Every structure is written in structure tokens, then in C-alpha cells.
Amino acid sequence: MPIFKKQIRQIKMISKDPLLFFVIIVLLVSLTLFILYPLFRVVVVSLQDQGKFSFANFVYAAKSWYMRQAFFNSLMMGVFTAILGTTVGFIFAYALTRANIPGRKFFNIMATIPIISPPFIGALSIIMLFGNNGFISSTLLGLRNPQIYGFRGLLFAQVLTFFPVAYITLRGVLESISPTLEDAAMDLGGSKWKVFLKVTLPLAIPGIASAMLVLFVESLADFGNPLILAGSKFPILSVQAYLEITGMYNLPRGAALAFVLLIPSVTAFFLQKYWVSKKQYITVTGKPTSSSNSVVSPAARWILFGVVCLFSAMILLIYITILWGAFAKTWGFDNSLTFRNFSYVFSVGFNAVKQTIIIAGLSTPVSGVIGMIIAFLVVRKNFPGKRFMELTSMLSFAIPGTVIGIGYILAFNQRPLYLTGTLAILLLNFIFRYLPVGIQSGVAVLRQIDPSIEEAAIDLGADASQTFRKITLPLMIPAFFSGLIFAFVRGMTAISAAIFLVSSRWNFMTVQIMSQVESGRLGAAAAFSVILVGIILVAIAVIRLLLRWRYGQTTSSILTN
């Protein structure tokens, strides 16, 4: 009863501001319709067989050795990617924050640049280097049947693709640990190795656990790398769900596999969000201080430098290969330079380039604005459904794109919301898929803004909408653009959901890249990739210039550091 009375009071309070009340209702309905309803349709259709309620699809998945193997492979790949990717990310973060290695700006760029490219660029480059006609495997080593497809090749691609996510998380964690704690331990006689094991590492454990869970989810959700590198002998569940729908035309079975994939993803998401967040250690109580001691020995510093150089060289090799492949006549046979691949892209695939920019360009600002509004409501307002709004809007991070794509096909393929094949279904998918980016940016900046500023505006007669537009929103603009960059990058490089939603009228560059790879036109795929990365870099540069001109500073996004 007290909870019910509290909700009644909250409803009365927000009903005094009709615009605020209307915005909350519209957002709650939209989140339900475009996030929860597609998931509900996946569950419903997965429990159907020939139009009747049945567990036949799950029974098939449980009995089929191939599907069981796909599920096991997905989990195993997720675990190995999480462990190795987090290890590499921690090494980078520790080397750049504690070891004082030379060239830290360069290594920071190397550690973050994979984020601004399609997630399967690593897989494409691996094929071009180590595939049947690979430059290293065939041209240099003369191997006839290189074993790059399957577990090893896929793990290599996923670690290089996702370790930057762990690096970003762990760099922030290590920078927040006060160096005076390590100084104190060393002053008490602790060796450098003991200080690392007893002080630095335990304080970083929550961040490490968080990074591992995020990488586990990213690996499960990955679609591009497995589609290119997994092969038939190493099935992956996200690919099998896609093949059931596009190859076997069996929507219920594909929905069942998507639902199975959803379970470990959502479980890891809730572990990361609620369990890990309660394990954070606060070690900074005043202004940051610099260390008076070197916590890394000279030998360890050069070992860290060597490891960082090795992985940076691999990243450079990937992008050099893609760039070279884009200009090569016929990769693996005639690697002489030509503009033929770019001519092909602009003659045959220019519509995909144009439509990708339109889709990402329209959906990104809308997603960013909605994200900022939700962040404002969640942090500053109390209303019934607040917890539901926060949880549902953040749920998109946990849902694999394959599940989202299948859900949208099932949810919006009949009247009154028949959207299949239209621009609207792509825009709605991207808007609600990347809401969490704007929400996280908004929440972070709102926690730094004193609520008394907004309270003063309200005391002077401004309503909630005026306060938000004239006080809160201008203060949130830098964070808004920071989130906008990341959302635009994600939108431009998406593949797993987009591949289900494109049509003859609306295509996407990443889908075109996958199509070129499947057709064996690696040069065209590389050219598409170069153009895609170029568009993203131009967009980031423009936003940085706008922020520098307007605010005298650049965005705090990790992509621009």
C-alpha cells in the first residue's frame, strides 16, 4: 500500500506538467513496442510448429548434435575471447597508465582504432593473408590448404576485434586507482611484483570482471567474423540461426536458436550490470596525485612494450592489408595496383554507400536525443515505470543483433505495423538498438551537474520542459556529441541485425561487404571497407571541429583521445 500511494503521488506530480507526462508515456510505449515486443515475438514463434504451440524446435536443437555443438562452440568462443581479449586489454591499459612506455599516444590510437571499423574487418584481412589465396599462406609460404578457418582463425579475429573494449574499460579503472596506494605499499618494503599482486590487481578485479562479461556478450553477439571464418566444421549459433531463416526458410527454428542465444547474453548482461557494479572500490578521495615511485621494473617495462608493439603491428598489418587489397587487381593472383575495385563500388554499390549514410545519419541524432531525454528522466525525475524504462532502454546492449533482426522480421511483417523492406524498419532498429550509448553519456554528465541549478530555474517559474531545454540540455551537449560519435560508428558498422532487414530498396554497406566476401570478390569487399572507415573518420573529424569551435574543447569520447 505505501508503494501504491507513492506511485499515486508521483503520477499527480508529473500530471501537473502535461508535456512531461506525455513524453514519459510515449517513451514507455515506444520501448515496449520496439524493444520488448520483438523479443516477445521471438519467444512466441519459437514455441510454434506448423502454427500450433509446440516445443519441437527446442527438442530439435537439443537432439541435433550439430546444433548442440554450435551452442557449445559459441559459449567456448565467448569464454576464450573474454579471457584473452581482457588480458590483452589489461596489458595495453597497464603499459600505458603505469609503465610509462614510449609512444603512448600512438599505442592508444592502435588500441582504439578497431572500434571505428566494421567488426569483421579482422576476419576479412585474415582471409586475405592466410586463406587459400592468402598473401602469406599462398604467395610467401606456398601452402596448399591453410587451416585458418575454424576455432583458431575465429578466436584470433575476435580477440583483435574486441580487446579495445576491454582496454577502454580497464584504462579508466587503472587511472582511477590512486598511485599513492602503490607508493605506500612500496615504502613499506613491498616489491614491485608484490605491489602489483596485492594492491593494483585486487583493486582492478571488478573492472576486469566487467570487461570479461562485456567481451563474452560481444563474442556471443558477433555475426560477421563467424560467418566469414567459422566454416562448416566449427558451427556458431548466431550463424546457424541466420542460415535457418535465409537458407532453410524456417522462421520458428531460427527463432528458437535465437532465443537459446539470448539466454547466456542476458545472463552475462545482468551479472555485469548489477553484481559487478556492487563490487567497485573507491580509492580516490581528492584530487588525483602522481606516483613518486616507478611501480614497473625496467625489465617488465620493456616486456610490456614488446607485447604492445606486437599487437599494434598485427593491427597495422590488418589495415594495411585491407588498404592494399582495395587497390589490388585480383587478390592472391595479381596484386598490382588499380582503381578498378573503387570503380566497381561507385558504379554497382554506390546506392549502398548513399543509403548507409542516410540510415546512420537519420537514426543517430534521433537515438542520441531520445537517449539524453531518458537519461534526464531516469536521473532527475521520479515516476511509475522509471525502473522499467531504465532496464528496457539498456537491454539493447545485451541482445545479440541476430536476435534483434529476427525479432523485427517477426514483429513488423504484418498489419497494422507492416514495415518489412522499408526505410522505417531500419531506422527504428538503429534508433532503439543504440539508445544505451546516449543514455550512458547522459547519465555520466548529469551526475556531474548540481541539481540545485535546475531547482533554481524551477523556483523562478520555469516548467520541466523549459528547464531541460535552457539549462540541462546545453550542459549535456558535449556528452551528447560524444555519444553521437559512438552511436554513428556503431550504426555505420552494424551487420548482425541489418542483414535481416535490408531489401532491394534499402541496402547497407556492411551487408554488401559480406556479400562480396561470400562471392569471392575480396578486392571489392576491401574497397567498401576503406570507404566505410573513411566516412566514419570524416564524421568524427567534423564533430570534433564543431565542438572545438563551439565549446573550445573536443568531446571526451575515447574515440577522440
List the topology elements.
Layout: H1 2-15, H2 18-46, E1 48-49, E2 52-53, H3 56-63, H4 65-97, H5 104-112, H6 121-130, H7 135-140, H8 151-176, H9 179-187, H10 192-221, H11 224-229, H12 237-246, H13 251-275, H14 298-327, E3 328-330, E4 334-337, H15 340-348, H16 350-380, H17 386-394, H18 401-411, E5 413-414, E6 417-418, H19 423-433, H20 435-446, H21 451-459, H22 464-493, H23 498-501, H24 509-518, H25 522-551
Antiparallel strand pairs: 1-2, 3-4, 5-6
Helix pairs in contact: 2-13, 2-17, 2-18, 3-4, 3-13, 4-8, 4-10, 4-14, 6-8, 6-14, 8-10, 9-10, 10-13, 12-13, 13-18, 14-25, 15-25, 16-17, 16-19, 16-20, 16-22, 20-22, 21-22, 22-25, 24-25
Describe this structure in words.
With 561 residues, this protein is mostly helical. The protein folds into 2 domains: 1-46 and 339-561, Orthogonal Bundle (MetI-like fold); 65-125 and 146-281 and 296-303, MetI-like (MetI-like fold). It contains 25 helices and 6 strands. It has helices spanning 2-15, 18-46, 56-63, 65-97, 104-112, 121-130, 135-140, 151-176, 179-187, 192-221, 224-229, 237-246, 251-275, 298-327, 340-348, 350-380, 386-394, 401-411, 423-433, 435-446, 451-459, 464-493, 498-501, 509-518, 522-551; strands at residues 48-49, 52-53, 328-330, 334-337, 413-414, 417-418. 47% of the residues are buried.
